[in-house]
Amino acid sequence: MPTAHEVILVRHGESLANISGRFAYQIWDPPLSPKGNAQAQALSRWLARLPITYLATSPLKRAKDTIKPLADEMGLEPYILPQLVEVNLGQWDGAVLDQLRLSDADRFRDWMQDPETSPPPGGESILTVGRRVLSGLDQFLADRPSGLTVATTHADCLKGTLLVVLDAPGHAARRVLSPNTAMLHLSRGQSGRWSLRLGTP
């Protein structure tokens, strides 16, 4: 039977992709900006007071850079979880958002209205992202003793995960704000069911 776990999913700090307004999935792996590095340090100071058992991260540099100060402080090695990677952006990977609004206006508008029924061409829907994040966490935690995991990931990963846990429709993602270093606190009970945990850790 699965053991109980808590997971704090954290969006990465501000990256060069955020500053430039450009999508970054596979063809570009940007680092954090100076502001993002400061956010990672502040995040570490806040989270290091918690009884953290495991650290995990998306394989992308901006997520790994975000968790590094906490890893150094706690003396823990982050596990690389491929399932925490950015949403697959398909043909839009690397595109500048302002240009995309003009060059692919209809599909961009549809995606902005509902990222579930109108994902990027060749890319992932928002609920698919949430299901793969939770599946990756299930696999990671399956044979590990109970504890608290902090995992760095990406904005749509937080949104998709929240919607799947709450059994909410994909279009509701556009009502969820996920700023840099935003956190989503989840609990996984012995039944294996995921729940949203409200309040501070």
How many beta strands in the DSSP annotation? 6
Which class in CATH terms?
Alpha Beta
Helix content: 25-40%
Structural class: alpha/beta
Order of helices and strands: EHHEHEHHHEHEE
Number of domains: 1
Distance between the termini: 25 Å
Let me know the average pLDDT. Answer: 95
The radius of gyration is 16 Å
Largest sheet: 6 strands, mixed
CATH superfamily: Phosphoglycerate mutase-like
Stretches where pLDDT is under 50 for at least 5 consecutive residues are: none
Q: What is the count of DSSP helices, taking H or I runs of 4+ residues?
A: 7
What is the annotated CATH architecture? 3-Layer(aba) Sandwich
Query: What does the overall shape look like?
Result: globular
CATH third-tier fold name: Rossmann fold
Strand order of the largest sheet: 3-2-4-1-5-6
Strand content: 5-15%
Describe the structure.
- Strands 3-2-4-1-5-6 form a six-stranded mixed β-sheet.
- It has helices at 16-20, 34-47, 61-74, 97-103, 105-113, 126-141, 155-166; strands at 5-11, 52-57, 79-80, 148-153, 183-188, 194-196.
- The chain has seven helices and six strands.
- By secondary structure, the chain is an alpha/beta fold.
- Helix 2 (34-47) packs parallel to helix 3, helix 4 (97-103) crosses helix 5 and helix 6 packs across helix 7.
- The longest helix has 16 residues, at 126-141.
- The relative contact order is 0.23.
- Strand 2 (52-57), helix 3 (61-74) and strand 3 form a beta-alpha-beta unit.
- It has a single domain, classed as Rossmann fold (3-Layer(aba) Sandwich).
